[in-house]
Amino acid sequence: VQTSSGDSLKPQRVMVIGGDGYCGWATALHLSNKGYEVAIVDSLVRRLFDHQLGLDSLTPISSIQNRLQRWKSLTGKSIELYIGDICDFEFLSETFQSFEPDAVVHFGEQRSAPYSMIDRPRAVYTQQNNVIGTLNVLFAIKEFREQCHLVKLGTMGEYGTPNIDIEEGYITITHNGRTDTLPYPKQASSFYHLSKVHDSHNIAFTCKAWGIRATDLNQGVVYGVRTDETAMHEELVNRLDYDGIFGTALNRFCVQAAVGHPLTVYGKGGQTRGYLDIRDTVQCVELAIANPAKPGEFRVFNQFTEHFSVNQLASLVTNAGEKLGLNVKTISVPNPRVEAEEHYYNPKHTKLVELGLKPHLLSDSLLDSLLNFAIQYKDRIDTKQIMPSVSWRKVGVKTKTVTT
Ligand code: NAD
Ligand code: USQ
């Protein structure tokens, strides 16, 4: 089969690192459903963080073993499971040699900005886990599967909020009469977001030096919970984080509205980010896999479908909540982060659309279904976990117990 990049690799075997997490679980099932041979690699460390911090997903999630058994009994499709830490190269080498992936989708990182700003140990953990994990994946590809395509989850937050348009990975600059196309400047604003910048640099270097083929998906904030596959059975339900550490903006606002908690707009609320529906996360990853980067190519896609300010999200959730008879209020919370609260934001996002992405734009029906989902699991909401508990300015050198 010819791919758009002109070579004949037809990826069949996909290793999903971080496949027990929010984006990874939905993606693993989607790819399995589409006929790919899928293996999940996960250390389950995310479930451990929840225990350590006293947090829980809005939705009750089954163990990874039960999830996979249920998937098999419903569809007849098997997903292989490798439990282990990709920072352990022995473990990763064995999984590579055993599964022999054609593509690796790498979701397996510590992905919360607030978590990385709790204290020095968590800042160090985040960068160590993310940077070394990705380096190990690069070495495993070089050593065992040279043709394997790396699809790596990056973040729109790598770019920060510059006062010019954001391009997809590269910018052409003319300086003192000479012109070059260079990596777009990175201005991340948490130790987590910075770990993604470091990853991108390591991946770009190994594409050049070793001929690795890689796609960096600079994803915006993901919202929603249901995908076709996770909606098939309650044991396949995805996690939905709403707490102040792992919860993200729109998901949090829907849960807050459902439980009568005022929507927590940080600071002035002009912070604008790219957003996408989780159904588009799985679609984008599938498109990236089906159209692999060429050997030596470091391809960067901006993976989001629309951008909103926090104030716009609050007003959309207020209107949708009122239609359901909820009385939704908003409060301005002193911003726990150090970030621009009013800024220019115009990032490009055409490359995935060119590959065929059909976006699910944020609609009344999605907000309605997410709000109803939150109402359905209302009794599981611990309102003490909603307010932010981590301050960028107060990140401590000593290990902190996080309490709200
Ligand atoms: P998540 O925390 O739900 O899932 C991450 C998974 O990776 C967890 O199951 C965890 O146990 C596993 N993991 C972490 N470190 C590992 C290691 N060293 N070895 C093996 N497994 C490990 O996170 P998510 O929301 O699904 O995010 C997945 C990826 O997508 C992350 O890289 C994140 O940065 C990126 N991303 C997420 C969002 C979002 O809004 N959720 C937006 C943009 C980008
Ligand atoms: N915000 C609020 N109120 C809230 C929560 C967030 O005003 O209750 C604001 C934040 O201050 C920030 C914006 O909303 O300006 C987005 O915050 P977020 O927590 O939704 O997202 P973020 O910390 O950026 O991280 C999430 C994921 C991360 C991913 C990133 C994509 O956790 O893994 O990389 O989204 S992006 O934002 O494009 O970098």
TrEMBL record:
<protein>
    <recommendedName>
        <fullName>NAD-dependent epimerase/dehydratase domain-containing protein</fullName>
    </recommendedName>
</protein>
<feature type="domain" description="NAD-dependent epimerase/dehydratase">
    <location>
        <begin position="14"/>
        <end position="302"/>
    </location>
</feature>
<comment type="similarity">
    <text>Belongs to the NAD(P)-dependent epimerase/dehydratase family.</text>
</comment>
